[in-house]
Design a protein that fits this description.
The structure is a single chain. Helices cover 27% and strands 23% of the residues. It is α+β, with helices and mostly antiparallel strands. Helix 1 packs across helix 3.
């Protein structure tokens, strides 16, 4: 999947979630997606490559970075809790997509990553402030 498609699909999905706001605090080229004021996704261009930062469980992030060439540690973010996702053809030896894994990012995985990022942020909110139940929203089950 190419980088522009990654950003388009992620945007379309995120904007359907309850209480999501799109902001541009770092300028017009950096789209920050927030749920109740807390960032869960950021879309930007890095050296000409459309890229996406997403919050991730640290163990999942490690596995994903090893398995997918399009997933790398979060650019300008906490490398343990964030990943950068860029589409195919973005491998430039150290930036998004520089991992050496053999699998390819597909729309279903991207969907799961955006959903997981949203739910991780919602789960940290006080229960009274949560727009959804993060354990069950989007077909997730609390048996995970």
């Amino acid at each position: 999947m190419d980088s522009a498609t990654v950003l388009r699909l992620a945007n379309d999905q995120a904007m359907q979630y309850p209480s999501v706001e799109l902001d541009h605090p770092f300028g017009p080229d950096n789209a920050v997606y927030k749920v109740r004021g807390k960032m869960f996704m950021m879309a930007y261009e890095l050296r000409g490559v459309p890229s996406l930062n997403l919050k991730i469980d640290p163990l999942d992030g490690e596995v994903l970075r090893d398995a997918y060439a399009e997933i790398s540690p979060g650019y300008h973010m906490n490398k343990k809790h964030w990943i950068t996702v860029a589409g195919e053809g973005s491998d430039d030896g150290g930036e998004p997509g520089a991992a050496t894994g053999g699998d390819r990012l597909d729309p279903d995985l991207l969907h799961d990553l955006v959903l997981e990022s949203y739910c991780l942020v919602v789960a940290k909110m006080p229960k009274k402030d949560r727009p959804v139940d993060p354990d069950t929203f989007g077909g997730r089950s609390d048996s995970r």
